Each structure stands twice: as structure tokens, then as C-alpha cells.
Amino acid sequence: MRICIVGAGAIGSFLAAKLGASGADVSMIARGAALAAIRANGLRMEEASGETVVQMPASEAPGDFGPQDIVVVATKAHGLASVAASAGPLLGAETQVVFAQNGVPWWYAHGFTAPGLAPGPLTRIDPDGAIWNGFGPERAVGCTIFSPNSVPAPGVVRNASVRPSTYTLGQPDGKTSPGLKAFAAALEAAGVNAPIAADIRREVWAKLLFNVATASTAVLTGATIRTNMSNPGVRAVAQALMLEAIAVAASHGFDVAADVAAMTDPQTRPNHKPSMLQDFEAGRRMEVDPILSCVSDFAKAAGVSTPTLDVILPLVRAKARTAGLYGDAA
Amino acid sequence: METCEHCLARFVRRVGGVNGEVHEAMRICVFGAGAVGSFLAARLAAAGLDVAAVARGPHLAAIQADGLQLEEAAGTIHARLTATDDPSALGPQDAVIFTTKAHSLGTAAALAQPLIGLETALVFAQNGIPWWYAHGFAAPGLDEGPLPLLDPDRAIWDGFRPERAIGAVIHSPNTIVAPGVVRNAANRPAGLPLGEPKGGASPTTVKIAAALEAAGVRAPILPDIRREVWSKLILNIAGAPGCSLTGASVRGMLEDPGVSALSAAIMAEGVAVAAAHGFLLDVDIAANTDPTRWPDHKSSMLQDLEAGRLMEIDPIVGCPHAFAKAAGVPTPTLDIVLPLLRQRARTAGLYSA
Fold first, then answer.
1. Mean pLDDT across chain B, nearest whole number?
2. What is the DSSP letter of A57?
3. B339 vs A313: CB contact, 8 Å cut-off?
4. Which terminus in chain B has less CB density within 10 A, N or C?
5. Which residues of B touch A217 (CB under 8 A)?
6. Which of these ranges, A256-270, B7-21, B184-198, B209-223, has the smallest mean pLDDT?
């Protein structure tokens, strides 16, 4: 099957390297220094088990590759509209597109109803419907990621985990097309866990409630997750945020009730900074809307009270905006 | 004791005052000549008072070499005064005005002893809730004694003794623009209202108030300086954490409707805590969270954070929050914001506790 990865950030580079190393037919859409490095030297992956260099076709022009069986879009959520505008040549009638973003996905309301949820694109992350109309939600495959990767240099990806990474996949309608099944098999063959979820939205929420609590507090304190959870006051705020996210998920019909005490136990939390704080410190646009604002919007629409998020979200948004790293600033 | 009396007598001299009247010059030491302290020292020196400053670092070196320069709208004052980092070089004073930050007072209590004689007036000009707050004052859940957040080991309480404290609230915006140079940005006369913890006006308090007035600093002696503390604190209790957590100016922060709303909520919580302590503040919260009414500058707490200075979290936010808990006043917004603010400061190595 023909697979094209769009975006040479941490997730895109990891998937491309893994799939390429396993012999899959994979190409990359990349730009700038990453594209130059991949063309010159191939894509280098550093793992606990060793280093691999993978050669693969790379271009910034989707027209160079033509229609694919699977496209994986691994840009940030706020980069999706411009990908939608340019990805046409990669999309054939049967092409499915896997969206590997953090937070609430743009296709969330496709074939799904919840109290107060309007059908169609989410105004917060797809205000003019450019993503919705550009890709079409029928092609979408959701994906939640447990895969700690970083890009130490252009064309180089480092995976910090000793365990296999997990990319949980699922169509918005809960069905499994032959193409999706084949893609999951390709990932498994490449050493990546790729379960197909019966309800990918539930997977989104299960991860999101952790991100809501840890990303927002980390952005405001500047501390790692473990440091924050070691501070009883901050931990209490994080737990309150988790419970609010769980309540919002419940209003959408998802029981993701979790042991918030265990989830905020500093002993079991990684001593690293969440990606939203990393983005802030590196001067990259922050994923405030998909991770926080959408949850708040859902809560307001469904009449769920989120007193803690109501305090935290404006502070995070103002911090991002002040740094020029919020959607309406950059 | 004799030595102290001797020193006091030796340094009292007679000079012409600002309006030509003759009064006794006090020996005044400004302890911790940062922005506010330097302003006061320059004004007092310019009024002919015998002023010494305890300062540190390049600012001290500049004052020693070239004197203190105070830039004001009305003109620039060049003041020559004694400056040192060693209080024992100065001997007992008629008055010591402590303008250090609250978290330095424990150290100051030890260092300042050579300045303190039997009659020395001790004026404390810090931001937020002062260390002597619970002296001679009853409020729900508040006991006589040092405040755990400000004075955990009683070094301030025992070092100065609250019966001797004169509270002061700073109404004077100053910045150190270069070593030895302080700029006053006020469009109103500077104010340093004073008050004793038990509400009296002892001769020492009257004397230092007169000296400040002679220096053009309005220094009324208030029946309860705590009310004045609260009135000023309520304006900072939201802006300080809001700016520090977002990095925005006060105006910038309030321009965000969500942050403006939570600032109003924090102010209302502060008003409720003050009320639990018997102070019914007349605060127009809507006006005070209107961004157009605030200058586009950063709260001093954010300035401290950005400059790598210890942040005054406990005097401005922590103590009111602790008072609320003790008095059973709900503070749902502060409950969220304060731990984040403390961790923000800790992450930067700028939390004192």
C-alpha cells in the first residue's frame, strides 16, 4: 500500500522512519531544513535499540507522489487548513487520511451527536470549514498517540521510550475499512502498536483528560509534570481539571472515569514538560484550542460546570497570546 | 543605654526647614534603599534631614561615589547622604524606615539592631499584609503573634517587637533606572500613610510623620493602617498573579474577557476577606478591572519574576488566602490561582518560603 506522511515533526518523522525501515512504500511531505536533510542524508531515527537511517522519497509538492492508499497528516492542528488546501493530489477516491493531532479532532462531530454540539466543523478549530471541506470527514481516521518523540535536528528523530509506541486508530463511524486494517497491520509489522478502537472518540477523551490537566498547569507554572504533581496545591488543581474533563466526556456519552489520584501521582508521572509547555518555551504556536478551548466549548454547550477550567483557560490563552503563540496572534 | 542617649543627643541639630520654619533634624536611616527607599532618602535629605541609607551592590557604590539622584516631574534632586551596607557604622537612629521587601525583614531584624535605640521609630513600608498585622487585632481565626507565611521562625516579631512597629503603606511609583538614579513617575504627591498596630500616635510616630511631611511626602497617621493596607492590596491581589501567570501587562491581561472576569472574582474574594476582618472596602470592581483605566505596564510581581527577584507572593496573595481559610471565607478562584503562582515562582527559584 502507498503511504504518504505529511509533516516532518516528531510524530511524522517517527512513523515515516518506522514504516520505511520495515520496507513499507512510504514517502514524506516536508519543508525547509527537514526536507533538505532527508533528501541529502535520509531520515535518521535514534532509539534505545540503536540508530537507523532510512532513505525515502521526500518533497514539498504533493503532486510529486499522486494518490495514496493512506495519508498520515502529522502536523499540528493549526496547520491542518493549509494541508487541506494543498493535499488534493494525494487524495484518490478511496484514500483514507489518518489525523495524528493532539486534543479534540476536527472531525469530532461527524456522525456524532451530543448535547449542544452543532453538526459539522468545530468553529473553534475549523472556523471556516476549510479542513472539513478540504479533506471531507468521510476519509478521516482518528489517531491517539502514546509515543514520546523529539526532533533534535532536522531529519533526525529520537524516540525516548523503551516500550513500543502506540498509535490507536479508529474511523469516526467505528467501522474498519480494509485499507485501515491494512495500515494497522503495516504499523504492527514496523514494530508500532496500532490497535483499532471501537470508538476512537473515547480514546481521544481518555488521553485528553490527562492533557487538559497537565498541559495547562505546566504552561502556567513552567514546571515538569512530576514537579507540578509533587506540589499538593497544583496537584489539586490538576485533579479538579481532570474531573471536569471527565464530566464533559460523560455529557458526550463517554465513560472515561479514572482514578485521578493515581493519574496525578508524582511517582508515576514522567519528569518531562508537556508538549504545550515545550512549544511555549520554543516559541512555537501552542495547541490551546484543541486541548483546552474545545473542552470548555463542549462544557458550555452541554451545560456542564467547569469552574477550574474557567479560571485556567483564560490564563493559558492570555499567556499564549502575550507570547504571540495563540491562534489569533501568529 | 547611655551610649544610645548620647548618640541621639549628639546628632540632633537645628536646620532651616523647607518653608523656612526651624525644626529639629532627625537622624533617619532608610534601610534597604531600593526604588522606594531611595526616593524617600533623597526627599528627606533634600529637606535638610540627616539621612543615611543602607543599600547594596552597584546602587550603593553609586550613592557613595556620586550621591543619589531623584528624577521627578518637577525636576531632579541631587542628594548627598551617607550610604553603607554595614548598619553598625551608623549607630542608633531617631527613625529607621524599612523599605526592604517583606522576605528580607528576618535578615534585616538581625542586621539592623545597631540602628535601634530606646526611642527609635521603626517604620515598615512593605507591600501587602505586614508582619505585625496580628498584633493587638482580633479577627476570626487570627491569633496574636507572627504570621506563619511571613515570619515562620518569629525572627521579625522577636527582632523588632510589634509594639514598636509603625506600619506604612507606599503610594509612590518609583523605579531605579541606573545605579544611584531613581525615577518617580507620580502625578500626585507621594504618600506614606502611617499607623501603629494598636492605632495610637506616639510621639515617635508623630515625629517621623512630621519629617516625612517636611520632605513633601504626605504621611497622615491613620487610626487603623490595616484598612489602608487592604485598600491598596485589593488593587494588587488580582493583577499580581494575573500578570505573573500570563506575562501580560495589567491592561493587556484585563483586555482578555476571561482574565478580566477572573480578576474581578479574585478582587471580590479579597473584599470578602477584608470584610471578615472588619474592613468594609469601597471598591468598584468593574472599574478596577476595566483595562482602559490601567496603564500598559506590568505588575511589580511580574517585573520581579522577569528580573529574577524574589516575588512578594505571600504578603500580597498568600496571607489574604490564609486569612480566608482561617475565617471560613470561600475563595474558589484564589484556591486555583495561588498554588499555580507559587509553583511558577518556585520553578523560577523566586519563592521565598
1. 91
2. -
3. no
4. N
5. 340, 343
6. B7-21
CB contact under 8 A, A318 and B347: no
Please say whether the beta carbons of A21 and A190 come within 8 A. Answer: yes
Q: Which of B243, B246, B256 should be substituted to probe chain A, the one whose Cβ sees the most A Cβ atoms within 10 Å?
A: B246
For residue B249, pLDDT beyond 60? yes
The DSSP symbol for A75 reads S
Domain B229-347 has CATH 3.40.50.300: no
Judge residue A118's burial from the number of C-beta atoms within 10 Å of its C-beta, 0-12 exposed, 13-18 middle, 19 or more buried.
Answer: exposed
Q: What ipTM was reported for this prediction?
A: 0.89
Any idea where the domains of chain B sit in the sequence? 2-223, 229-347
Question: With respect to CATH, is domain B2-223 assigned 3.40.50.720?
Answer: yes
pTM for this prediction: 0.90
Is A314 in contact with B258 (Cβ distance < 8 A)?
yes
Find how far residue B2's CA is from the centre of its chain. 32
List domains and CATH numbers for chain A. 2-198 (3.40.50.720), 202-322 (1.10.1040.10)
